[in-house]
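EI: anyone free to look at a 335-residue chain?
SC: sure, send it
EI:
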Amino acid sequence: MKRQNLFNILLGSLFAVSTFLVSCSNDNPDENITSGSRILKFKVSQDFNENVAERAVEGMEKSDTIYLKKLNDSTQIKAVIKQDIATSSRAVYPVPAGTKVLAIVSNASTNEIYKMHELTVGSDGILSCEVPNFAVRIIFYSYNSTSDIPISDSSYGAMENYSHDIMWFKTQVINSSINDLGTIKFEHLISKVRVKMHDYRTISGISSFDTTLKECTYQDALVDIYNGTVYPYDILIDLPLKISTGTLQAELESDYKIIIPDENALTMTLNVNKINGTALTGQAMAFTKKFKAGYAYTIHLYLEAAAPSPILIDGNISQEWIDEVYDDTNNIITL
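SC: here you go
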């Protein structure tokens, strides 16, 4: 189905079901419990995708590519795009108390939505949800936020913006005899990216940098909540990735920014706008990358001495991608 058609269907159903959502999503599961229902309690956490091969190498990972760019006669930038792994941001984290969660309870036989609840993770890390005394499934849907909560239409559809950190979990069939489901682990349906700058050039360090990742994320997405699938929609936009501190450091990193991933690799450009407050011009690095849902990525920028005899092509410094291995433990690059 084309994205435009899918968007029209889901957007129409969102308006049609607004009255339904108002009537059922504000229920407090701890009040007015009828005789035909029960309370299920869950411990909650958030998980990230990783594979056994990544975990086994204990911090060693072959990066995708490295890019060389000359800043001036004495300095060049190497750019390495790395998928974060278990030893860094791929660990399991708790979900903070107060996090808002939409719980969609459905009939396990028909998949029809029985009820929607607006829930909040308790101070003990427990999520409580009222369900009927027949077989159900529950889909938990969250922005990983203590203030904002998603909505869904009656067909498990939602329209989301790239600013939302979308987390999702669907249970197996829960029979009427089950009252405790143990721990649920939210999956992230989006990607994250950050920039980390390393000073290999001088001992002075880095106090700030300003970069922009051009056309790297879709502004909006259509979400199939039942299957946990994200469909990028509409226009590609830029992400500013920058940080400023009051002290010089050997390494400095920006916060993560959210990316709505595409099923295909995207060609994008990283502009290095400023380093330590000094404006730079023409410092752009183009690369093609497929960001996968549920993963975080770091673009490492290494400032170091330029090659003594740069290769000139038509009067310009050559720029090329070179395979490399990055040792995350000892911060060493081997070409």
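EI: Residues 3-16 form the longest helix (14 residues).
SC: 👍
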